[in-house]
Structure to design on (393 residues):
């Protein structure tokens, strides 16, 4: 078991009536001039944006709006937000949307007081931790950014996708109404559930085997998400299971499922290059990569994979052959992904054969020019990355 510090300071307002608290929550955390940051037209068409603005007005809070955030959020929009906030004297940020909007908002929050370019943080050229405080109104359960300390941004130049993680990125509050997820397309729902599962997997598949409380929580999250996503794909307005998914997304990425363990995060790093190059949905990219990563690394802790197979995927335990049990669990996981419409290889993800040159370019970026490694269950160098990408073709 590893020593750990657990911090989850975000105040959560959960349920259909939670949206009534938006203005009061902004005021509670000191906001007097707010940037309302959002994505496309759905926030306006649904009436949510008007409700958010009315709640701010009721508390006498001024605001400016900035929409246009896209999936795999771009640093160009972040820079636009920084300039707007400086010009308008914004002192609080409010993200209205899913993980992409929240991640963009986090980048704006650290960029406002910084005198250089915000991309410096994502390339580790700057480590300033001063941030403008922010909250969020969650509409897409997936990324868990509403309670995490991380932000992932794509640079329009070169399609580089990088993350930056600091405790100051944690939202002051998160307003979560599961009814807002009723109209999510099936693809987005499935991608979101996959992202939740993968956030938990990145912490669960570890060499640290002696934190049973954490492992049991993680396994409960796995089973709940897998059960609920099947139900909401058939019954989009099933409040009970939409609520399970919304709360599971937060628990999967607020570090609760990783207390006492060493996270891996190799699959995420490998996928970042896929979505950076091909602009694919993050959850789908993770599903396409995970099976190959798992087969490549499972021998580093075969009993952990066997435990997952039995406790989560319902595989019968072959006590004489844990490797067979582990591999059966990997295959069962891939069948689950396929059952909710997720790809399990790169060809199905991007709709064409990936070239060796594209694989080498992704591995070069993922390894920081061949100088870096990713992962902890098995530390992967550039050649390992190439091998896994080729396995996933």
């Amino acid at each position: 078991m590893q020593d750990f510090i657990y911090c989850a300071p975000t105040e959560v307002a959960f349920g259909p009536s939670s949206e009534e608290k938006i203005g009061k929550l902004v005021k509670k955390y000191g906001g007097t001039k707010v940037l309302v940051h959002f994505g496309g037209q759905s926030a306006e068409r649904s009436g949510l944006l008007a409700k958010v603005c009315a709640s701010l007005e009721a508390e006498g809070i001024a605001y400016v709006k900035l929409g246009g955030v896209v999936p795999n959020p771009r640093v160009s929009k972040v820079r636009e937000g920084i300039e707007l906030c400086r010009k308008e004297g914004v002192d609080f940020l409010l993200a209205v949307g899913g993980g992409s909007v929240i991640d963009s908002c986090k980048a704006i929050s650290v960029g406002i007081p910084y005198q250089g370019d915000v991309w410096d943080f994502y390339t580790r050229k700057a480590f300033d931790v001063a941030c403008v405080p922010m909250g969020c109104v969650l509409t897409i359960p997936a990324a868990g950014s509403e309670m995490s300390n991380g932000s992932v941004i794509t640079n329009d130049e070169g399609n580089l996708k990088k993350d930056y993680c600091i405790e100051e990125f944690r939202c002051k509050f998160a307003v979560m109404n599961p009814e807002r997820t009723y109209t999510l397309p099936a693809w987005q729902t499935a991608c979101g559930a996959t992202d939740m599962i993968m956030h938990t997997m990145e912490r669960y598949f570890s060499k640290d085997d002696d934190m049973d409380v954490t492992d049991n929580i993680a396994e409960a999250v796995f089973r709940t998400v897998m059960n609920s996503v099947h139900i909401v794909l058939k019954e989009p307005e099933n409040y009970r299971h939409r609520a399970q998914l919304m709360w599971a997304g937060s628990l999967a990425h607020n570090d609760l499922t990783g207390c006492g363990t060493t996270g891996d995060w190799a699959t995420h790093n490998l996928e970042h290059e896929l979505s950076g190059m091909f602009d694919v949905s993050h959850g789908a990219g993770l599903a396409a990569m995970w099976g190959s990563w798992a087969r490549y690394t499972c021998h580093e802790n075969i009993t952990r994979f066997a435990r997952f197979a039995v406790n989560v995927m319902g595989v019968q335990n072959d006590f004489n052959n844990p490797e067979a049990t582990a591999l059966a669990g990997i295959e069962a996981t891939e069948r689950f992904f396929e059952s909710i419409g997720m790809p399990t290889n790169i060809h199905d993800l991007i709709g064409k054969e990936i070239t060796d040159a594209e694989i080498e370019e992704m591995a070069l970026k993922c390894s920081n020019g061949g100088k870096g490694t990713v992962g902890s269950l098995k530390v992967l160098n550039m050649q390992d990355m190439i091998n896994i990408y080729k396995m996933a073709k």
Q: What stands out?
A: The chain has two domains: 11-180, 185-391. Strands lie at 11-14, 33-38, 62-66, 92-97, 134-138, 150-155, 160-165, 173-176.
